[in-house]
């Protein structure tokens, strides 16, 4: 019987840079979720905040399938009667491309206190420029 590995001490977290241009939305979101959770590290321990800080650039150039482009609708509600809003995928990509990727990643991490801590380590930008050059993020394929 194998014993469960539990990391001792404070786990290290790095800064990584991901270029989203031309990449598939779902596959990229899954890879980013694994980096945020720390599942790509050999010392992965469930429930321990040990993932990397992920900076995503060029979110506006992400590849989305044509069927998803026509059918996907983002809903939000103001909590007032009749306050539902629906935004289509092309409109969301035009106005707020960073939200498309952030929502896709949020759907792939746990929806609890741990997940809310993890999602704070995700930084998505529509273009090339980002304010995290001081952290020296390492480029990832």
Provide an overview of this structure.
With 141 residues, the chain is of the alpha/beta class. The protein has a domain at 15-64 and 93-130: Ribosomal protein L13 (Ribosomal Protein L13p, Chain: A, Alpha-Beta Complex). 30% of the residues lie in helices and 18% in strands. The protein has 5 helices and 6 strands, in the order E-H-E-H-E-E-H-H-H-E-E. It has helices spanning 25-37, 66-71, 89-95, 97-106, 113-119, and strands at 15-19, 53-57, 73-77, 84-88, 122-124, 138-140. The strands form 2 sheets. A 4-stranded parallel β-sheet has the order 5-2-1-6, covered by helices on one side. A two-stranded antiparallel ribbon has the order 3-4. Strand 3 and strand 4 (84-88) form a beta hairpin. It starts with 14 loop residues before the first strand and ends with a strand. 23% of the residues are buried. The mean pLDDT is 94.
Strands in their spatial order, largest beta sheet: 5-2-1-6
Counting helices, strands and paired strands, the structural category is alpha/beta
Largest sheet: 4 strands, parallel
Write down the overall mean pLDDT.
94
**CATH architecture identity of the domain at 15-64 and 93-130:** Alpha-Beta Complex
Note the beta-strand portion: 15-25%
* CATH homologous superfamily placement of the domain at 15-64 and 93-130: Ribosomal protein L13
Multimeric organization: single chain
Number of strands: 6
Counting DSSP H or I runs of 4 or more residues, the number of helices is 5
Percent of residues in helices comes to 25-40%
Radius of gyration equals: 17 Å
Q: What's the CATH class of the domain at 15-64 and 93-130, please?
A: Alpha Beta
**N-to-C CA distance:** 36 Å
The arrangement of helices and strands along the chain is EHEHEEHHHEE
